[in-house]
């Protein structure tokens, strides 16, 4: 009774074509080790009968956000949002004139803000948006995204995402993967735009969380953002959050900084075929070049561990012929 | 260029058949208000062009577990597990002889254990499984489920689930819903069996959480359960967890106790068509009859609010012609 449906056969044939290069699902990736390691992994886990085959429901792929899927220089997108928002509501908070990281934010001192670390960076938007209902918060973020521009590219931040990674996300989903974003940013900030920009729905976004208050107002349930951080989703917490929210160990993890290392270690330590990779920011011309000594997206231990374990390190300059969707594709290497 | 694919047309035709009764997707539900309210809701949100139409990605449905999808009498399944587990490891914890809820668990005193409330009920398995890696924990739960039996039905606990609710879960998924379990039980306990029993994958299970420790053992990442509860997923926290993990407001919520009320209130307070329902345990013969005064699954305020708001109250005795999968269907009302 069981026959392969014709569209399944078609999908399988398209996958085979893609894997064998007749259709290039990753056109912004130059031929090279980065691209080959992806194609070979996907082929290994999706080819029925192979010892490395993984059933579709177990094809969990996790991606860091800032610096992995989108630009994080000269500052994390949410940090730019928070700095403007702090100014907008500063009149209600005279105490911020003397308190960090608010003082630096009000002075427009990005370096001072970044010096407050991930917790400070999470506290900034949390405090600046406290008291908003979730619907109000959603509108504030949407308005800011629509009206703000990246200082270098003069494009909306949501266009400053990496074209090769958009192609990779889509390619993985076509091959039966479920793609998750696992970020240090607060979860509601990302959910406003990840579905439209990455094709990743809200329920597949994991991040830092802010404490909400549940209230009944005239019999209607609303949630109000409090000034309190519940969880900072960075380093070891990224692995712990993946376990708490997804409950399956990923088979693919992509990051770009030491904050992503435990997530990659957790992924790598499962049985069977695994894929771990870092985006290495090597292109100071088209984007920004930074790694071991950067205050943002520091990639130091991660580079060493990737070399020792044979993980993929994507060299942005060498591996990507196009960085942003708004750029024309270059002619390759 | 855009044409409806033939299999979409087929799916739509099958749905229409189901909704109009030519194929009964809910055979264990008697014709009556409960079943009709479900069919009418699903038709309203899935019929393109209707003002009440909801796009598939927004069709989020949440279900409480104990007492809504599975039996919770004479004690929550996880409580039965914990009581046995406490005995098994008691030799390593002489202090438990004098501490509640351990003392009651060791004496086999279910009433004493239940008296410790949801937090005590969460602490029991948490303490009894502390120190296990997640893989070890998984095996312990699997072994217990395979070897234990419900005291009344002499069946594995995972067979003591409600056939009408299994049909409802499948019916909703067929109609483009994403089904989530939102339970007071700890999330890893449920994930061992929800996919097989309910068709709900691990990443769609939300529950109480235990603090895990991330460790590198010979370079391999493992997680070890700590004795510490992170979050008790009950009452208002159920609504807050839905927001944190799913990030979309559900359009359907099903519970059976006052602990589920905030989850239903949160669901009901969204715009557009919503469906909220309680399972009312009215069948002392086939199952257990309990509501306003029960220490387990108390349904008191919920019954009043359901009446005031016109939510569906499923009368188990009247609405279900079959309770468990292992029962033959009765001839109806």
Please specify the SSE layout and strand pairing.
Two copies of one chain form a homodimer.
Chain A: H1 6-19, H2 33-46, E1 60-63, H3 77-89, H4 102-106, H5 110-114, H6 117-128, H7 134-147, H8 163-174, E2 178-186, H9 187-191, H10 194-198, E3 205-217, E4 220-231, H11 236-246, E5 252-255, H12 261-268, E6 275-282, E7 289-290, H13 301-309, E8 312-315, H14 316-319
Parallel strand pairs in A: 1-2, 1-5, 2-3, 5-6, 6-8
Antiparallel strand pairs in A: 3-4, 6-7
Helix pairs in contact in A: 3-6, 11-12
Please characterize this protein's 3D structure.
- The structure is a homodimer of 333-residue chains.
- Chain A has 333 residues and is α/β, with parallel strands linked by helices.
- Chain A has 14 helices and eight strands.
- In chain A, a hairpin with a 6-residue loop joins strand 6 and strand 7.
- In chain A, helix 3 packs across helix 6 and helix 11 crosses helix 12.
- The radius of gyration of chain A is 21 Å and the shape is globular.
- Chain A starts with 5 loop residues before the first helix and ends in a 14-residue tail after the last helix.
- Chains A and B meet through helix 9, strand 3, strand 4, helix 11 and helix 12 of A and helix 9, strand 3, strand 4, helix 11 and helix 12 of B.
